[in-house]
Amino acid sequence: MSNGPDVEALIERFLNYAAGFKNGDADHDYHIRLKAEHSLRVLELARTIAREERLESGTARLLEIAALFHDAGRFEQFARHHTFNDRQSCNHARMGITVLLRDGLLGGLDPATRRVVLGAVFLHNVRALPPRLPEPLGAVTRGVRDADKLDIYPVMLSHLDGDKPLDPVVCLGVARDPERYSEAIIGQLERGRLANYADMRFSNDFRLLLLGWVFDLNYATARRILDQSGHLSRIFGELPRDGRMLALKRRIEEQVRRP
Description:
Blueprint: H1 7-19, H2 26-52, H3 57-69, H4 73-81, H5 92-102, H6 111-123, H7 137-160, H8 183-190, H9 203-212, H10 220-229, H11 231-238, H12 243-256
């Protein structure tokens, strides 16, 4: 497997690509910048996971590249549809495959590297991974999914907390309501399952969906980072304090602290 361009060169390529979607409108450019900065933070989190999990160097490099490009489709999605809601526009992972191939973002990488990166991008947003993924695709995809979730926590909480109007693009159109949450959402979490975006109606539903991600964190490093971040306590601090939430809090804490 040849090396091809180093990751720093790919970062520059990615940032130039993302900058091409800015149009001078403050709101538009804010959302483009949001996704570019998110991708760089996911890359750094992926590096931490690779280092602490002691992934083999070739696998670690694949993880870095896949993490950098995992949301490549978001820019064209927003430019075309003015939303990050896949259900109202397009599957951003599939759009990512299109732009990565069409726009030469993976140029210079050998075919084996391209296959793994494209596979991880395609799978990074599926509800559940297929069983028995071949390696190194499995390790890379699990790392991208973990790093992606870890960075979305603070981004979403910065938008959900307080009483300011919710950004309809980032918060996917949910309504701010400090007391209400949907039965479909909490019921899924009580069964140890990920919540479904399609069931979200209220801001508390989005908080619950974030809590449910602990059931899909693959690496112990990711669970440790989340546990130490304070994000889970911050989420529960904004949710209603009823019996179901207290029971859910115990379950979530047990899950995130498992070895």
